[in-house]
Amino acid sequence: MKTSITCLVLFLxxxxxxxxxxxxxxxxxxxxxxxxxxxxxxxxxxxxIEQTKLTRTINRTxxxxxxxxxxxxxxxxxxxxxxAITSFTHGYTELREEYADETAQWEAKIDGEKxxxxxxxxxxxxxxxxxxxxxxxxxSKRFLNFDKKKGTELENWQLFKDLENFQKYAETEFRxxxxxxxxxxxxxxxxxxxxxxxxxxxxxxxxxxxxxxxYNQYEVASYADGPIELTLPYSDVKKFLAAKxxx
Length: 247
What we know:
Strand order of the largest sheet: 1-2-3-4-5-6
CATH class of the largest domain: Alpha Beta
Number of domains: 2
Radius of gyration: 22 Å
CATH superfamily of the largest domain: Fervidobacterium nodosum Rt17-B1 like
Structural class: alpha+beta
CATH topology of the largest domain: Heat Shock Protein 90
Number of helices: 5
Strand content: 25-35%
Distance between the termini: 39 Å
């Protein structure tokens, strides 16, 4: 009886470890609002705490994305988020000194969260809002996909084993969702695809609900139309994907 109990406990421990093969993240929060006339910067992203090739890749990728968003001076080589914030602040200060009565306060809000993880794949969603003057700010979303086994970031095409047929399938589903008649040009209802031909968005991400295709504002439609999203069930797209998805 003692042996049976020991085996059961061992089984439960091993099963639990296998089931909970997830990365551990802690929030990384950076804010700056030093004075009434300074840009307001708010950053909150997940920070992977284990020390592995994968976690280093994730943290480095997030840092590089944020630096590219905030870097105002292209000639400056920022290596940290703080240096990028300094560049963003200098850009605002220079513009305000030149146009004191016309420069509205700049703002940057960047939030990230894990939206999908299984044994092989991980997706982090990065939401950004930037205001640097003008009639309105600009919000955008970025999906960052990672191969957990190889410890690398994935390009969109690497998510698929049959990209060509996936694009054909995605166009069919896009037309259905957006009520674009079959046989009519993709832009016949007001979209702005280049060369009037359907193409996949720059952002494709894994989510709990399915594979999400995201066209940010201005990508294929006007600002007023907002982002264009299409979520495809894993049961329908698994035949196109390079990895098996646990849906």
